[in-house]
């Protein structure tokens, strides 16, 4: 298995306009808690994003979404949807998006292990999901907490069923154990995904995340790979 390591050279994203006084929230929340199992309200997407046929990028676990805000200014013709389980961060991000006047980005409060089908199904009548990113998800390193990870076999199978053929799913983390785990979960379903072993060492979105820049600046490693949907289903 090939581990894609970033070059040690730091390429920091500097955009002062995206800095904000952040509220304090818990770093991790239990996605298995009953409060995160309830149905969520979904907007009418054609009133949220520019008119179709704009392509859409789905980011799973976007935190404060400052990274997505930077991407949305770089790619005004692409719609960006971030999903975050910690609701205070969603409120903060949406307030900032409104202040900046960004029209091609939306942040949604949801649990992707519960709401994936509902979210994607509500999008596809209008928008084509062109790519998906799972960058630096919660590692949940304790053995008894592994079941809380967003990437699991059921999630990966559902994602393949819902996405168009040849949709790239970008994985990235600075935790080697988590990287190997995620890769194995995707590789366990070879009928659903093919792995791109020729992906470059750079961030697939063309811009490093804040965590990525910090890790590289401290001399750490970034592990990344890309899987493409085959169009088959289980």
Automatic annotation (TrEMBL):
EC number, UniProt record: 2.1.1.33
GO molecular function list: tRNA (guanine(46)-N7)-methyltransferase activity
GO cellular component, one term: tRNA methyltransferase complex
HAMAP family on file: tRNA_methyltr_TrmB
UniProt keywords, alphabetically: Methyltransferase, S-adenosyl-L-methionine, Transferase, tRNA processing
Protein name: tRNA (guanine(46)-N(7))-methyltransferase
Pfam families: Methyltransf_4 (PF02390)
Organism this protein belongs to: Aphanomyces invadans
Reaction equations catalysed: guanosine(46) in tRNA + S-adenosyl-L-methionine = N(7)-methylguanosine(46) in tRNA + S-adenosyl-L-homocysteine
InterPro entries the record matches: SAM-dependent_MTases_sf, tRNA_(Gua-N-7)_MeTrfase_Trmb, tRNA_methyltr_TrmB_bact
Root EC class: transferase
SUPFAM superfamilies: S-adenosyl-L-methionine-dependent methyltransferases
């Amino acid at each position: 298995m090939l581990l894609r390591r970033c070059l040690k050279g730091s390429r920091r994203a500097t955009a002062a306009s995206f800095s904000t006084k952040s509220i304090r929230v818990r770093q991790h929340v239990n996605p298995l808690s009953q409060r995160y199992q309830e149905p969520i309200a979904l907007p009418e997407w054609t009133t949220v994003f520019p008119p179709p046929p704009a392509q859409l990028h789905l980011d799973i676990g976007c935190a404060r979404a400052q990274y997505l805000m930077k991407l949305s200014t770089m790619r005004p013709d692409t719609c960006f949807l971030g999903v975050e389980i910690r609701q205070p961060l969603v409120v903060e991000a949406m307030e900032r998006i409104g202040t900046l006047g960004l029209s091609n980005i939306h942040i949604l409060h949801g649990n992707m292990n519960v709401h994936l089908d509902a979210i994607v199904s509500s999008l596809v009548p209008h928008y084509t999901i062109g790519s998906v990113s799972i960058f630096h998800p919660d590692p949940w390193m304790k053995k008894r907490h592994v079941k809380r990870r967003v990437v699991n076999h059921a999630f990966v199978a559902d994602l393949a069923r819902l996405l168009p053929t040849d949709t790239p799913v970008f994985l990235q983390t600075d935790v080697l154990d988590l990287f190997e785990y995620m890769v194995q979960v995707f590789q366990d379903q070879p009928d659903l995904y093919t792995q791109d072993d020729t992906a470059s060492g750079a961030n697939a979105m063309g811009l490093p995340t804040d965590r990525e820049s910090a890790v590289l600046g401290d001399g750490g490693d970034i592990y990344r790979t890309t899987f493409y949907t085959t169009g088959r289903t289980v």
